Amino acid sequence: MLDIKFIIENLDTVRDGLEKKGYTKDVLDLDALTALYKEVNKLKTSSQSIAEEKNKLSNAIKSASSEERPSIIAKSKALGEEFKLLQDELNTKQDEFNLMMLKMPNMPSPESPIGPDDSANVVRRKVGNIREFSFTPRDHIELMEINDWSEMERIAKVSGSRTYAIKNDLAQLELAMHMMVLDKLREHGFTVITVPSISKEKPLYGQGYLPFSRDEVYHLPNDDVYLSGTAELILNSLRADEILTENELPILYAGFSPCFRREAGAAGKDTRGLVRVHQFMKTEQFVICKNDINESEKWHQKLLQISEEVLQDLELPYQVLEVCTGDMGAPKYRQYDLEAWVPSQNCYRETHSCSNITEWQARRTNLRYRENESGKVKFVHTLNNTGIATPRALVPFMENHQNEDGTVNIPVKLQPYMGGKKIIGKNC
Questions:
Q1: Which DSSP state fits 29?
Q2: CA distance 42 to 190
Q3: Domain range holding 149?
Q4: Chain center to CA of 349
Q5: Is 157 strand, coil or helix?
Q6: Are 80 and 122 members of one domain?
Q7: N or C: which terminus of the chain carries fewer CB neighbours within 10 A?
Q8: CA-CA distance, 83 to 99, in Å (whole number)?
């Protein structure tokens, strides 16, 4: 959410930001928003004036003569009815205004590439060498089949499409990746925290899932709760409505949770295997810091660095993309994606998404802090990045580290989390 005063005072800047993010006038009309804001304020002023006048009449009734009292009571009653009508209109207009504000995206960074979709994303760097195989490499599905690492067909009968059940060494590998990343994040000063995958509706508005992506979220109507698609959702509202001290910042969370996404808009894409499934496990990096763009951009680079360390520890070739304005989504100020090389697809595929949200989420959750020197209360900045998400990360891992006999090598940094194993597979 943006500050309405900022919007009114910087209409041209906001219009430019909306255009860069692909928001046309029929989707979000700034003129209608500002007109509605003025109308709400006018109704508030009128309501207040009537309330004050009604209070005066109520006080006058006490000292009025018996002849004057009926007339004053009638006037007070008429004002009460007028006040009720105004309040009903005000509540309707306020709800309309609040919804429009909730639909207002964050403004993009002036450093972000400008473009309508992912075709305008910019590769900032490539790291690691793409492996040249001396044999025909298998895809991750074949590797799972020959090593008895999954029950994909059987689990589909039980749980439906886009679900997975992995076993034996691969199941251990999935958990090992998370433990390695959680240890790394703790070394970087993060608080490791496990969080629920169940959320009330309000945090979805706070995070930015709603009102933008309702069709992507699982809703349990009998309990009126939702299944979370990332620990970011829970962590973003964990301190909602609090006023922190500046000394408490930054707050660094390494959140682990099962995650659920409907993938409603992904029909026909990556339906086989482990790339795009409805339930997965994710370790999330989440930062709450001071309201200073230099400070939050410093943390943005730090989160990116940590994820690059993870991919380097996993010995995966990858590229860093800077995401363009039209592809980064409503909450984002600036975004990087990390993509690991997938041999079977002959391309890089996303493993991490790293975003600076500035104060956009904090305004929605009312999370603030008090500055030490000035005593001024400000909204915090929030940032998030994937630590590791599985089973997606298993795809480039298996394919890049495979051997001709179908076994898979374990990188040195991961071996302690695999009981010292240097290689896994049926032939080991």
A1: -
A2: 47
A3: 118-424
A4: 19
A5: helix
A6: no
A7: C
A8: 24
Q: How far apart are CA 311 and CA 275, in angstroms?
A: 17
In a domain, 112, yes or no: no
- Please report, for the domain that includes residue 241, its CATH number: 3.30.930.10
Residues 64, 68, 74, 78: is their CA dihedral positive or negative? negative
- Tell me the H-state helices in 21-150: 30-63, 69-102, 140-146
Residue 145 makes CB contacts below 8 A (sequence gap 6+) with: none
71: confidence class by pLDDT, cuts 50, 70, 90: confident
- Active centre residues (catalytic): 261, 276, 350, 353, 392
Q: Considering 41, 76, 102, which residue would you say is the last residue of a domain?
A: 102
| Cα within 13 Å of Cα(263), Cβ side | 17
Indicate the pLDDT class of residue 266, thresholds 50, 70 and 90: low
pLDDT at 317 over 70: yes
Which two tokens mark 25? Answer: 């006038």
Q: What is the 3-state secondary structure (H, E, C) of 382-416?
A: EEEEEEEEECCCHHHHHHHCECCCCCEECCHHHHH
Check if the beta carbon of residue 336 is closer than 8 Å to that of residue 384. no
Q: What is the pLDDT of residue 274?
A: 93
Q: What is the C-alpha to C-alpha distance for residues 250 and 365, in angstroms, rounded to an integer?
A: 17
289-307 tens-digit pLDDT: 999 999 999 999 999 999 9
**Co-location of 259 and 394 in the same domain:** yes
DSSP 8-state symbol, 228? -
Peptide bond into 391 cis (omega under 30): yes
Q: For residue 247, give every residue at least 6 positions away whose Cβ sits within 8 Å of its Cβ, in sequence order, or none.
A: 372
* 105 in Cβ contact with 330 (< 8 Å): yes
Token readout for 122 is: 């910019």
pTM, rounded to two decimals: 0.92
Burial class (CB in 10 A: 0-12, 13-18, 19+), 409: middle
SS3 426: coil
Q: What is the pLDDT of residues 97-152, one digit of tens each?
A: 999 999 999 999 999 999 999 999 999 999 999 999 999 999 999 999 999 999 99
Which residue(s) pair with 227 in the sheet? Answer: 198
Q: How far apart are CA 333 and CA 105, in angstroms?
A: 9
